[in-house]
Amino acid sequence: MGQAIVIAPSLTAGYVRTVSNQILKCPKCQGEMAQGFVPDFSHSAAIVAAWHEGQPRKSFWTRTKVRLRDGVTIGAFRCRRCGFLEFYADPKFAAQ
Ligand SMILES: [Zn+2]
Question: How remote is the CA of residue 91 from the centroid of ligand 1, in Å?
Fold first, then answer.
């Protein structure tokens, strides 16, 4: 729990390992976690959803004030067994 995650580039796509080289396990059922992302289609394009710090503020023009450059892209990890989702925000989860 709380362990930093590292994605080893040599691994088969979808497998995620911790810094101690263990396959990331589901905290609910110990199933295997698969890397994914949450797309955001609201800008007439698909971008990776991002985390923004603080309370959201309303905007007359855009509903919510957002400065895209302030966001930290979200990596979403899904348990292959039970479907539990775990999110991490880190620039390394941006589209590559
Ligand atoms: Zn699970």
Answer: 25
